[in-house]
Amino acid sequence: MADVDKALARLGLRLPPVVPPVAVYHPAVRSGEFVYTSGQLPMVEGALAATGKVGAEVDLEQGYDLARICALNALAAVASVAPLDEVAQIVKVVGFVASAPGFTGQPKVVNGASELLGEVFGEAGTHARSAVGVAELPLGAPVEVELIARLAPSAKTVLV
To answer: pTM value?
Structure first.
């Protein structure tokens, strides 16, 4: 388990407030030792950091940075249901990239999320992943990221 606050401070980041849902869902749900986040958009202080399609209005570098914001928002969602220092492994990341016709750099965009998680959690941030190009995302967002985190067994958990 990582000391998440120290890792974020080292990166010059702070955990943002949980982004309020834009529809009927919870930002994160805990089920046993797993936390599943809903798709997180690149929201900063209540507004999208950018809109448009990657490969047109948004370039690959911007998309990468937006995926980092999405991952940070996903960590805030996880923290709303479990302490981040209890995260034992980021198990899976799914990144959706609103893509202009012909854009095929989705994996490079979603690397923004994956690399942030590795910087924060070290080896525990290494995960399985999908990077998917889509025609549109909610609110015109260029990127959306969701993740699954596995929590360490609680000291209060009794194994039978």
So the answer is: 0.94
